[in-house]
Amino acid sequence: MPTRGIQAVRGMNDILPDQIDRWEFFEQSVRDWMAAYGYRNIRMPIVEQTDLFVRSIGAVTDIVEKEMYTFVDHLNGESLTLRPEGTASCVRAVLEHNLLYSGPQRLYYSGAMFRHERPQKGRYRQFHQVGAEALGYGGPDIDAELIIMGADLWKRLGVSGVRLEIGTLGSAESRSVHRTRLIDYLQRHLCKLDEDASRRLHSNPLRILDSKNAGMREIIEGAPRLLDDLDEDSLIHFERLQQILREQGVDFEINPRLVRGLDYYNRTVFEWVTDKLGAQGTVCAGGRYDGLVEQVGGKATPACGFALGVERVLALVMDSIIPQAPPDVYVVHKGDAAAGFAWKTARHLRDRGFQAILHCGEGSFKAQMRKADASGARFAIIIGDDEAQAGEISIKPLREAAEQVRVGLAEAADLLKRA
Ligand code: ATP
Ligand code: MG
């Protein structure tokens, strides 16, 4: 079949070489950042049993109702799903490999996630997340740590204007009290509910408060607040979290309407939000999920985590702080003897830690020098048959006004290092 005209799947992006400096700078920053807090990397498969997500994220959520890439593996009839998020997979992996046996775990992952959403700026069908999960920790100190890590990352990346919103969902029991009050209230405003909300009235009323439909704003504003139904322990937990954040100089706003789009959260929830990205302003979101480990089949284990949207964060990273990584040298050569010596020179320099581009293809010296210049390399290495015979190379600085020098290959690495 001809492949002409085949395009990438809608909402799934190629990341091109011109964008890679930014991605690699980010990825290296993330590795250093996570290591600084003692979080260890874990890598889960991209595909999981569908049930894992239905059970953990919740059947009546946007993700499970309409965003999952689910398919039947026709070879064995299993229902599989491309992961829409990482927490469920991470918890599954931790349980499967008994990692909690050796105590609480601080873990992080990064990679592609898949959601069938309407593609727009900052919202894609394949996107990337970095997530951190602290499993086996019940106190507000770990919630604070995860939040403070966010503040630290913005500093490391030179990102400004991201503000922190926190909230609490209380315990499962206090939420069920609240739920009854909320359903009562919403039932009194039935005619003002949109289709989604009417459908969720009994199955997931809390999620109605997270609606992005502007027509629902008024009824949401007037709804009973979960904060007023909170249990004592959750309130103390929330107070202590705020105290740590204040002590550590991290500014926050309390958002009583913060519910998050997944069912497994309880107590602390938080979002890092920016105004610079239009409607897609949440760059990082997380919270506590004390019930999830048990729900996925393990022993009751408290836990807290976050996931950040890599594309959205990268959109905030300034170009100026991205280091450029041009090659060190570009090797130009002309003539049969020169070609062999050029290969040898490039290998010799790479073995000593230099990034060397060897000119491939035909081309006059002049044309090759133009390519050397365009490559961004600091030096052109020029080899003609004459140089090759003498075992020497000419080094021409391309970025500064210095003389071209001719040296033996054995001295070249030292000379380049000193330059
Ligand atoms: P939103 O309210 O924007 O739909 P969400 O609550 O569905 O976000 P989470 O499941 O909490 O998002 O995912 C964590 C982060 O991942 C988000 O804050 C966002 O930065 C990013 N993210 C989520 N969905 C997408 C997407 N489709 N494309 C790009 N980034 C996304
Ligand atoms: Mg969403």
Automatic annotation (TrEMBL):
Catalytic activity, reaction form: tRNA(His) + L-histidine + ATP = L-histidyl-tRNA(His) + AMP + diphosphate + H(+)
Compartments in which it is found: Cytoplasm
One GO BP: histidyl-tRNA aminoacylation
EC identifiers of the protein: 6.1.1.21
MF terms in GO: ATP binding; histidine-tRNA ligase activity
Major localization listed first in the record, in broad terms: cytoplasm
GO cellular component, as recorded: cytoplasm
Chain residues that bind L-histidine: E85, G86, T87, R115, Q129, E133, R260, Y264, Y265
InterPro entries per record: aa-tRNA-synth_II (IPR006195), aa-tRNA-synth_II/BPL/LPL (IPR045864), Anticodon-bd (IPR004154), Anticodon-bd_dom_sf (IPR036621), His-tRNA-ligase (IPR015807), HisRS-like_core (IPR041715), HisRS/HisZ (IPR004516), HisRS_anticodon (IPR033656)
Main enzyme class: ligase
Record HAMAP family: His_tRNA_synth
Family (UniProt): Belongs to the class-II aminoacyl-tRNA synthetase family.
NCBIfam families per UniProt: hisS (TIGR00442)
Subunit structure: Homodimer.
Protein name: Histidine--tRNA ligase
Originating organism: Nitrosospira multiformis (strain ATCC 25196 / NCIMB 11849 / C 71)
